[in-house]
Every structure is written in C-alpha cells, then in structure tokens.
Amino acid sequence: MLVKFCQQRATTVLSPRDADLFQNWLLDLLAARVPPPLTERDYDWHAIAHACDVDHADLKRAGSILAPSLDALRRELARRGHVTVERGAARRTPPRSERGTPHRGADEPEAMPRRRGPRAKPIIEFPESDGRPWTDPPSFADALDLHMRRHGDTAKHLARVLEASATQVDATALNLWRRGVKVPRASRSLAALELIERRYRLPPGYFRSKLPNGDRCTSAGTIAGISRAERRRLAWHLPHDFDRRPLREREEILEWVQRVVITGTTDYRRFQAAAMKQRYSIRFPGLLDQSSRPRGLYRFCREEDGSLPDPDLASAALDAPPQLAEEMADLVRFKTATLTAFGYQRNGVWGEETASQKVEHLGLMFGALAASPSGAVHGFGVPLENLSFSLLVFPIVWDWYIQWRERRRGFYTAWEVDMLRIAAALTRAETGWLRQNPQLAERIRPIPNLITERDVAAARADWDAACEQMHRHGLARAREVQRVARIHRDPFEPIIAVLEAERPVAEYRKITEEILRLMPDEKRYPRAAAEAVRAFLMLRLGLHLGLRQKNLRQLLVCPRGRLPTSERRLAEMKRGELRWSERDQGWEVLIPSVAFKNANSSFFGSKPFRLILPDLGGLYHYLEAYIDRHRRVLLKHAADPGTLFVKTVKLTSKDAGYCQNTFYEAWRLAIQRYGIHNPYTGRGAIKGLLPHGPHNVRDVLATHILKKTGSYEQASYAIQDTPEMVAKHYGRFLPQDKAALAAQILNKVWEAA
Question: What pTM did the predictor assign?
C-alpha cells in the first residue's frame, strides 16, 4: 500500500529521486517498527526531511499530500501492536486560540496546566556506565546499541542531549541506526557521533571506524570553483575532517589529490592533460561506432564567408564532410573485408581494434590540416570541403604534419614513424589503396602555400608516379625520423614502485586485499558492493591470466550448470569464455588463439589458451557471488552483453558492455581508490603508485618471473608472448648480477647436502 501510494501520489509533489527516498524511509520505518516522528500539532517534517535526505522546504510543501501515508503507517503499526493510536485523537490539534474556552466563574481560580507523563530525565554530560564487562561489537549498530544500554540512554533522551549541544538528530534516526536499518552519512550525523563518543568516553573515531567508508569526506562543500560532480569524485580521496582543517592544509591536500591521484605526475600525463583541452580531430560518425558528438563538444557553424567566428573554436572536434567520410569508409572496407573486391589487391588485414586506431590517427591528421592557423592548435587552415585522401600522395603534406607534431610535442616519437609507414603502405605498388584509386586525383584542389596548380596537374596526369614518389619518400623519411625519435611515455613509470619490489606480484596483490578490507556491506549498499567485487575480480583475473585488455574485456561468462559455448563458436567470435569445468572441478578460462593480437606467435601454435583458475584468496567465493548476484545488480534491466565484466547501468547508459576506453577507466578508478596510498586518509595499498591501466599487470607478471628465474622464456609463458619480446621490453628488470643468480641456484645443491 505504501509503495503504491508513493508511486501514485508522492510523485505528483516530489521529484522522482525524493519520492524514492521518502518511500524507502517509510518502508524502513515499517521494517523497524518505528512510528513517524510527531510534534505537538503535526508530523515533525524537519526530522522527516533529515531522515529521508530530502529538502525540508519541498517536503513541507508536500505535507498535505504525504500525510495520509504517515497516517496509514501509524495505523498499520497500531494494528500490529507496536504503537498506540488513541481513538478519536486528531493528528493535527488546532491551536488554543481556535478552540473554545470553557466558561469559568469570576471567583474560580485559573487552573494550572498539568503536564502528563513522567518527569524528563535530567541531562548529564558524562553518564556513568553500568560497570559490567563488555565485548566490542564489530558492527556500528551493535556498538551504538550496546553503549546506549550501558549508559542508560534511550533514543529520545539521547536526542535531547544532542539537541542541547546544538546538534539536530532526532530519536527516529537514532533508533534506525541502532537497529541497523540505516547508518549516519551526512556531516551533521557524523558530528553527532563525535559527541556521543565524547559522552560515553570512547576513543575518538570509535563509531566512525565501524562505518563503511568511514574515513571518506562527506561533503567537500568548501572547495570553491569545483562542480558538484567533481566534488563527489574527490570526496573519496579527502579525509573526513577536510572541511574543518585550515585553509592552507585543505589546499595542500587538494593539490596532492589532483596531481597524484586524479591526473598522475608523469610528464606524459601532464602533456596529455594539456593536449586534451585542444580538441581538433575530425570525427567519422557511424563508422566503427564513432560518436558524432563527443561529450562536451558542439559543432560550430561557419560564417557566410566560410570562416569560423572564433579561431579557438576551430580546435573543437568536427564531423567529417561527406566526401571524406565516404573515402574513409571505403578504406576501412578495403582493409577489413574478408575478401577484397574484384580487381583490388591488398597486403594484410586490419582487425577491429587496428581499424579503429587507424581511423582515429588519420582523423587527427585531417583535423590538424583543417584547424585554424591562428587558433590554439595552430593548424594549416585547409577548408573542410577540400579535405580528401588524395592529399596524402603529396610528400609536402606529410612533411608539414610530422613537423607540426614535432613543434607541438617538442621532439619526434614513434607515432610519426608509424604514420609515415601508413603513407608508404597506402601508396605501395599493386596493394596500396591510394595507388588503386586513381579517381581520387579529381578531388585534389590547390591549397595556398601547400599544393600548387602544377602539383595538382602532375598528380592527375600520372597518378602512379605521384604514388611512387610518396612511397619512396615515406620510407626514407620514416628511417630519418626513427633515428632521432625519443620515447615520450615510459610505460613502467606509473608502476615502478611495484616493479622495483622484490616480489612484484605480491606487492600488486595488496591492492586486491585493500578492496576486500574496504568492501561495503552488500545488504545496505548492493551497488557499491557489486562495483567493489567487480574491481577485485578485474585485478585478480588480470594477475592470474596476464591477458591483454581486449581479451579480458571481451571474456564471456557461462554460469555453472549451463552448456558452455563451443570452441568453434568462440573462434568465430574471437572471444574467450569463463566456464565451470566438471572434469577439473574448477573455473576454466578458454580463449581460442585467433582471439589474440599475436595469434600467429609461436607461443600458441594454433592451440587455444586454457587455464584453470586457482581457488586461492577467496577467488571462487567472490567469482560465484559476482556471477550469481552482483552482476545482476550492475545490469539492472539492461540487455546482458554476455561478458563477465559489465558496466554499472545508469539512466544515461546505452550499453552495459565495456569498450576500450571505459574498461581502462574502470581499472584506473580501482587503482585510484584502492591502489594509491593516500597519506591523508590512510587508504590505498602501495606508496608511490600512480594511476594506470590494465596492460600494466602484464608488466608485473613478466617482471616477477624474470626476477625469480632470470628466464625470458618462462616470463613469456605468463603473458602469452615470445622470449624475444620479453627480452626487448623487460630486460632492464633482469637482476644485474646474472652470475649471482646462477650461483643461488647452484648453492641449493650444497645447502641440501
């Protein structure tokens, strides 16, 4: 009845969020057998607003509509014998001025009003306990109930004590706390806990330590210039007393959190953060699921003369013109189709991930050409309608682009080498896509200070010669750039604190233990608990499997008792699956070799990857709980993508499946919350760790085995790669004294003798 009332009546006067909060509060009262709070004349809307976490003014205005639900709740509790409702007693008593006054004679003295009920208990600052021995309960509700009984406090009396100390927490809220129905979360409620601790002579932080996420900042409301959404994100990383600390200390904490936790302190991260503010890429909507409107960006219309109203607006991402979009789609079809079109030849095929990457990289190049020279990007200013793949046959275009990137970053990198190799591949004889599409020459337009009329005429007259010239130039320029290219991003820098440890895997495992330590209560916070279990399994499976992000992200799940997907079907989908193995009595991961990036590597030999996960550290317990319960909580009513890891479905979610970016962000969020040690909150497992993505777990595995065995071959087994690749990337972590490592193995013979 209460649910139906809230759905039909409460939603007409409250927002959907507030109506849900009010409904949950009513159901909590019914479950706890606690009546709604009353004043002398009406319901205590101030206390109700505080308990529901709803604005008091909104609730007061809706009082006449919501009051019948409270009446119904009181009647139901009275029917069950939990509260007494006097017959004929009105819920709202009219004031004395509106009631009739009985006639009293002139000589009759006025009767003094007599207050009914027992005399109120006097307020004592430090009440004595009953002196009995007691055992500290683990939960907050049991601890609060124990100490209230030890000191003879009822909820009503304790509420009066708090009110006398200028802290408004009503008796209803205290009853809900001690019954375990709710826990204090607001700043005012947490301040009340400190007063209760002082009253009962308990150590500071005694009750707060028993709350889920008790050290988390509750409001962070004093941070100026930061949006509410960002304050919520920062609250996890701020101490609970952040608002009460001095201004200088708050600024110091905030600077550390933003520098270390949010962005990371590497040079590359700083460059990336600055570069992301200047968006200039050309987008290809409808191609490989590219969005036509990146979040926060808008398409700006040109003026009548074709110029942009503001040069800086040219740095915003734009949709590709129809001609360029058609050419890009044709290139992607050419490189990804199972069979080439009749009359065409190609050398190599792009997978989905590779195609998406090439589209993005070419979009950046066209965006740089189109960006305004006087804007923040300092592009070339080519009109959008003149953009075409036919421009890529001119060496001067490529020279401008790689030099523009060098000016922007400060040095050449492997990116420029890869782009020049793309240019050479597109113009290669017989198999180059540009080489086989001479009709593109008709789309070339002269561009001042870049492509002259003579260049256009020469390309149209002999397309093969123009492509051959570009092919040779691309190969030669790639060799020149490779000679001076520098490494801008050290992939090991964020996890160097782990890799330098004696046992890197054991060091990284501390993050999963921190997740379990801070695990929320599933009954009270089902979604938060589901997200924590998901983060735990992401890291644990990453440590056990050593998979690349794509294979881990696309891993399907087959619940126990269902028929697993056939290996042939998995090979067609190029995905792996987690399933229960009756033969081995364990959870098995099966991934066909074609699903891997290095499918042709000697490691696989055309055989699938198969591994039985070990039942260690509670892995099976949390894995089965996630599959049976937590995964459904995250999905809500969204369509199931079939993958093991799914996103938390929200109102704006369109798909529950992870993409490359969202999976990276989910992993990075887990590291920010549980991995990076925060000296101000005490949370976080590893000092010196920085935010990173799922690929770094492969570095941890390979480095651990190298340190323990010195064998590139054994390290390659852990990450499904070859010894040559391991030696190339991880050789610097091999123990410096190789002779000493060999001596340790030989000395074991003498120790055993």
Answer: 0.68
